[in-house]
Amino acid sequence: MQNTLNLSVTGMHCGSCVRRVTTALEAVPGVQVQSVEVGLAHVAFDPDKATPQEIAASINRIGFQASIQ
């Protein structure tokens, strides 16, 4: 079963930021990246493998501020 999650991400400015956020999200078990653009990320995830808070934390750890929409 897959859930979806939209994240607002502050601190992103360019394509490099998009790549960093994408890489961080892809490293979370059970997460499938749907799209990432400056300021936004949309993922599908397996709730048995990751929580929305863990997914947001993966972005926060690399220096951005993610909040669940």
UniProtKB/TrEMBL annotation:
Domain of life: Bacteria
Keyword Cell membrane: no
Secreted recorded as keyword: no
GO molecular function: metal ion binding
CDD domains: HMA
Record keywords: Metal-binding
A Pfam family reported for this protein in Swiss-Prot or TrEMBL: HMA
InterPro entries in alphabetical order: Heavy-metal-associated_CS, HMA_dom, HMA_dom_sf
Record domain HMA: where: 3-67
Protein name (record): HMA domain-containing protein
